[in-house]
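Bit of a strange request maybe. I'm writing a small parser for structure token strings and I need a real example to test against, not something I typed by hand. Could someone generate the tokens for this chain?
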Amino acid sequence: MVARERFAANALACRGVSSTDAPRLGGNGRSSAALDLPEQLRADVRLLGEILGEVLVEYGGQGLLDDVVALRRLVIAAHDADAPGADSETSGDDAAGQAQALVSSWPLPRAEEVARAFAVFFHLVNLAEEHHRTRMMRAASPTLPVPGGVGAAVDGIEDEHGAGHAQAMLAGLEVHPVLTAHPTEARRRSTVRAIRRIATLLAERDDPRLSALARADLRRRLLEEVDSLWRTGLVRLKRPGPLDEVRTAMAVFDEVLFGIAPAVYRRAETEISGDQAGRRPPRVPAFLTWGSWIGGDRDGNPNVTANVTRQAMSIQSDHVLRALEQATARIAWAMTADPASTPPSPGVRRLVDDAADRLPDTIDELAVRAPNEPHRLALLVAAERIRATRDRNADAAYPTARDLQSDLMTVQRSLAAAGASRLAYGELQHLVWQVETFGFHLAELEVRQHSQVHARARAEVRAGGEVSAETEEVLATFRAMAQIQQRFGPDAARRYVVSFTRTAADIAAVFELAEAAVGDRLVLDVIPLFETGDDLARCVEVLDEALTLAPVRHRLSATGRRMEVMVGYSDSAKDIGPVSATLALYDAQARLARWAARHAISLTLFHGRGGALGRGGGPVNRAVLAQPPGSVSGRFKVTEQGEVIFARYGDPELAMRHLEQVASAALVASTPSVEQRTSAAAQEFAALAGTLFTAAREAYWALVRRDGFADWFVTATALNEIGRLPLGSRPARRGLSVDSLDDLRAIPWVFSWAQSRANVPGWYGLGTALEAVDDTDLLRRAYAEWPLFTVLVDNAEMSLAKVDRRILSRYLAPGGREDIVSSILEEHERSVGGVLALTGHSRLLENHRVLGRAVELRNPYIDALSYLQMRALQELREVDAADRDDPVRVESLHRLVRLTVNGVAAGLQNTG
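Reply from user aminoacidic:
Good idea to test on real output. This should exercise your parser:
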């Protein structure tokens, strides 16, 4: 069999179809799972697998492909032997043992090559799945309003509550994603770009008009790009700095976010206004607001300094000003209306006349380029002034983004008054929306710091005299925020998040330090972040005390009694377990909503969620619909991290659909009927929630609070190795202690469990909690009627489906604590059994056919990477115990760990 054909079989086997599987196509194994997947998706995976096979042979010869195929067959055999009704002659443990022996037999260079092959394959599979989702959206019926979109939500609200109520809710809609750096984002920008180039070629292949010659050339280009991806370092060799992370986020803005924001508004406007869309002032406001912690989040990250924060905003501003300048110039050159057909208003003439003073060296040239076209000339002047703003030319620069918006709307009103409504409310409206959404700062740069840092700084400042370097940096941060506000306005940097807020004094400390640093020159909103179980329980008490603080009362008065409070999903789950944290978060948000209503405060809850299911991950729109009554009120703010940023915003169509669904859910969740149903369900199942909370928390604490657990976790998992990997600018720990999990950040905690294939933070305690209820009918009724419980179980089910009991047993064994591993396995068995009894299904994810089959088909391939990672970790630990006299071998082992971390993360997805 030639190389291409052999890897074609290999690729098909990845989706369950190979020559050896053929006799069992109708059975319960991987083949039937593959047939549940769409044919177009399988064809894409088959094609990419064939091409990767050719690349492997060209690079490493037939032997490299043979080794990849040999490992693939063994890991598949191990899974197939365990399948219900399997009649394999080889047991799963035997096949797994053979796979582990094969991996151990390879020289390190070959192990690295095989790991790279599986990692690249997962990147290609993920690309194919993303492309297929995009393909399905394009092929969907072009009906308006789009199901699950903003228009559909508004229509439903109008039907139930009237047009006035619907318009009021739409006017108050706010969706506020906040981009954050992710210390477990394992992909380099060059890898992301290579994948995007392959995705573009894959999309071109869908054109049915392609000739045979064009199709052959596309295949050649795909071979070139996959070869480039193979040769590209998949993971970083050097830890990125905060400004590197800022620039990575800017790639998403440049390629996707700037363009899709007006597209989201336009589709909603078209859904709502129908034929009148684009002919009159829009009903849809610019409801998207972007925030960023990248370059502002200094909690435990000494690399983020005041100077970094200033530079981060400069980078953001440069990108958005360039984008606005280009968009304005593009629209200007298309604005060819002359005064005879479209007479300009006096306002437009004033804009042109004013330009003679502001741009004396360029106005004549612009007038020559736009002869007798005053609307075009006014927009060209605006583009030049945006450039002057970027160049910091004070004579011609716009003072604020609102000044630019005013000029654009002057042109818009002039066009509308002249009868050119389509010119007024078409592309020009897109530009107005972009200015409203991004301003001159792109995204508000939020600052975050730990409450203990503020406490130490306040004590030093009050004591007088010379302060420590840490305190000086705290004060410098406030000066940097004041400088940013002076240039870009208060909205560019006014939010200050206090990690681990435990008392009102933690809020007061920030105001006091800001005054010491800059006096009254800073507009400041201090956002308390409640993270642990105890903090969530005390949140209302803390806010009651906060209302007695003069700075808090002043800000409430200045903002129309608006306030923001953040709740943390990661550390709460790490503290009390995933089940109890979900229930505690719901209870805290319900109490916060009632507290805000009592005090006539317009509350925005800021959700600190991650990508992993143990950090609040999962479908966001479903999570929004499960929120407590009064906690959304048309406003939803959430963190978006690392891998989630690229998954949700890496492709324009997927990004647009995601934002539409979140906006729609924010509207629907705020309707009286939905709030009443949610409230009724929460009341009806309150006793059930109490039972689940207590049982799950006790089970989780029995695991993580037993003697020696912290030492075992560091020894048994890849935590130390992950902490040394150059994945992000922020350290894995806030300090240096390894004696307690309190010092460990939630992100590497979750990531380490995912790499071990145990996924403990996503499900542990659920089985015990369900057993404690001992009423299947009650649980099934709650699953059907209580949105929060439905989401909790569904997310845990997904996490459970990604657990591999055989791998985790082998992976965690070096820790030497069979009791801990046994507890994990026993709770996993209880949890799987409890979920199946609750849902009435025969297997996990049975009602999510495509997702379930995709997980089932991916797992063996992730096993291959896990065996390679276990080998590298074992040998590294042996080297650690020796004298490290072979640095070349040590570095090779670290490369193998990096490759496998990358590949496992790509295979599992939502891991960080």
